[in-house]
Write a structure and sequence with these properties.
Two copies of one chain form a homodimer.
Chain A (H helix, E strand, L loop, with lengths): L3 E7 L12 E7 L8 E9 L4 H4 L20 E8 L9 E4 L6 E4 L4 E3 L16 H14 L6 E5 L4 H12 L3 E6 L2 H9 L5 E4 L5 H8 L4 E5 L5 H7 L2 E9 L19 H4 L3 E4 L9 H13 L7 E5 L4 H9 L6 E5 L2
Parallel strand pairs in A: 8-9, 8-11, 9-10, 11-12, 12-13, 14-15
Antiparallel strand pairs in A: 1-2, 3-4, 3-6, 3-15, 4-5, 5-7
Helix pairs in contact in A: 2-3, 2-8
Chain lengths: ~325, ~325
């Protein structure tokens, strides 16, 4: 059986909405590990909004993907060959090795994960990068206190769902914002948020006011756009707004203009962008709490699994449009 | 000589641009102090952009001025009658006692000032509320480090001028933004900024890029509008943006929409609104440094003095339009 490696490359830099033709799927030989390296067979690929930024030819916090390069991304898989003393064949690992079935790594960007405590795929979500993103942004920037009101956008997503459940565990009033009644029902009934606003239903400012009678103390920003304006108008003094992402703007040609930023002066609001990879020292504590929360059932999660790497571009575009429901994954093996 | 007290009251809540007819000037009897009170004769009234917000019927960080009430504002003057053991007739004081020639105070909102070290009027500017605002916003939120680039809007104004000079003393590259060539020349030649951009000259993004070859680490925001977008596009990772005011938006009916806030995610930018009255514990250290800087000539300042309380409304409107040059004061006595 002549196995090959399937890879997804960046073929074009999108202008506006990303298209499937901006990617190219190629078949290459499975590489052999050099001394110090391991060969990983990826079981799951994580699709995350931040990847859209990596496709642009612009300065950003991390290197952009070059044309013709394998798309960047986190995977979870198993070590199938090891020439690195830290890893053994059969180890389950997560790391950022890209949109491909097999990958080499020197181990520096890999972490061993225990797929018996929680399923392997969850190490790309609730107990992986998105979960730690939620934990760091909420705790270190949002700093919610009992009784405060926390609002979370993209509330049914990989990050937003964790943010809200962590905030509930801190005895906050938690209001989600999500797209469509099905997601909103899930956010309230399954994840235990106090309320969820369907941003597609219109009247966002009124709905937000009704759901936040005591104003807003923390807003975890995943989406951007008009919702941020509506939130700014409801913020209490000294509100905190961790800026995690603005997925509504990633493919926009004409970006939305935020008009209520002036409220940040009078209300002494703090808006702060952050990236989870700046906070590596916080990962162990975050992962411990998140793992415990998943194991004892206090933190729930949901996955959208697409089969086959060749379908990753379509799933990625769908995720940017909000078509996924929960953490978007691609099953590779 | 039957002396009377001249007062400026809020007559209308402005919609859009404030007009002189939104104020009413009245003559009343000079009040007599009750036990525990002092009577102050105000020599100078300070006119500051924040007062525009107090004229609106909207929630803000401080109580709005009610219709028919004396306009709120800082003054510097002398105690002419005292029934408070902390004050003596002849003491020079600064406090927030409003747009009027004479005022009563129980002393809780007054501070004694030494008009021999620096002139009385300066206690409303460089060694008063605007100076401390600059000091707190720059040091506590901006946190500039040597070699960093600090950009300041309204750079020739009461706050901006101090921000830039303090940042220069910390060995930062300092770039001002001001309206017109005369103000820009003053900012560079008198205040010692490294560069100053005339925002009326057009091509703001290009001018900003040319003046900030190493990007922007701190932006002290006084103005808002398109400048903030241009700054966000030039910010370095972990840039800090103290939000002190947005004077360009105070009278706007259609507010400017900020489109580049997304940069705050990737660049981990912090934007934080603040109000100097939240930071009372910092006043003594700030005033000490500012007073020393003024006395040894390292901190310069400029005043725009309008004669007569009856001209305060016109001067206030002019200040909001940027017609003043340096700290706007009204001389009352």
């Amino acid at each position: 059986m002549a196995r090959k490696n399937l890879q997804v490359l960046l073929a074009n830099r999108p202008a506006g909405w990303v298209k499937e033709s901006d990617f190219r799927i190629v078949e290459t030989d499975i590489p052999a590990p050099a001394d110090g390296q391991v060969l990983i067979r990826n079981h799951y690929l994580s699709l995350d909004p931040y990847m859209r930024g990596r496709m642009n030819d612009q300065r950003s916090y991390a290197a952009k993907v070059e044309l013709g390069e394998v798309m960047t991304g986190e995977t979870a898989g198993e070590v199938v060959e090891s020439r690195n003393p830290r890893f053994q064949r059969g180890d389950t690992v997560a790391g950022r090795v890209g949109w491909q079935q097999y990958a080499l790594s020197d181990g520096s960007d890999l972490r061993k994960v225990d797929a018996r405590q929680v399923p392997l795929s969850a190490h790309l979500g609730v107990v992986g990068m998105p979960g730690v993103t939620a934990w760091v942004g909420l705790n270190d920037i949002g700093q919610p206190k009992p009784g405060e009101t926390v609002v979370v956008s993209a509330a049914s997503g990989a990050v937003g769902g964790v943010v809200g459940q962590l905030a509930r565990m801190k005895d906050c009033r938690v209001v989600g914002v999500a797209g469509g009644p099905e997601k909103c029902e899930y956010v309230v009934k399954e994840l235990g948020f106090d309320a969820c606003i369907d941003h597609r239903a219109g009247n966002l400012p009124q709905a937000l006011a009704a759901a936040t009678p005591k104003g807003i103390d923390v807003y975890f920003e995943n989406v951007g756009g008009p919702l941020l304006d509506a939130v700014l108008a409801r913020c209490n003094p000294f509100a905190r707004i961790p800026l995690c992402g603005m997925v509504s703007q990633y493919n926009a040609v004409d970006r939305y203009g935020v008009q209520n930023l002036m409220a940040a002066v009078g209300m002494r609001i703090k808006l702060q962008g952050f990236i989870v990879s700046d906070h590596l020292a916080r990962w162990p504590e975050a992962l411990k709490e998140l793992t415990q929360g998943v194991r004892d059932g206090r933190i729930k999660y949901r996955e959208s699994v697409t089969e086959g790497l060749e379908n990753a571009p379509r799933a990625f575009i769908g995720m940017l449009k909000g078509e996924n429901f929960g953490k978007q994954l691609v099953k590779l093996a």
